[in-house]
Design brief:
Blueprint lengths: L8 H14 L8 H14 L3 E4 L11 E5 L2 E8 L4 H12 L6 E6 L8 E2 L2 E7 L6
Parallel strand pairs: 3-4, 4-6
Antiparallel strand pairs: 1-2, 2-3, 5-6
Length: about 130
Amino acid sequence: MNAEKNYSPQERALARLGDFCSRLRLDMALEKRAQADLESALQAAGLEFEREKPLSKSDIPDFLVQVEGITVALELKTRAQRKAIFRQLERYAEHGIVDCLLLMTGTAMGLPTTINGKPAAVVSMGGGWL
C-alpha cells in the first residue's frame, strides 16, 4: 500500500500556482512584456495578487499571489545570473509575509525544495510552448 504524502498548505499552493504558470505562453524576449502578460493571465484566472509590492526598500518581488490563503512570492526572470536570482529569492524568504517562492525563468536552473525554510519551486517559461 502506497502512503500518500501529506503536503503542507504552502506546498499545495505552490504546486497549484506552478501548474498554472507552467501552461502559460509568455513572450520571453522582453522581461517587462512577459511580466505584463503574466499579470493579465493572473487577472483572467481570478487570482488575487499584488504587483511589485515592496517587502523592504530593496526587496520587491514581481508578484505576491494569494493561493488558498497562502502568499507566494512569484519572480519572473527571462535571463539572469543563477547566483543573483538565488540570492534575491533568499532575501524574499526572510520576510514573514512570504509563505513560499516560485521562480518563472527562461534560464535553465534548479532550486532547492526550500529556501530559508520556505517551500520553493522553479517553472520553465518554455513549458507553455511545448
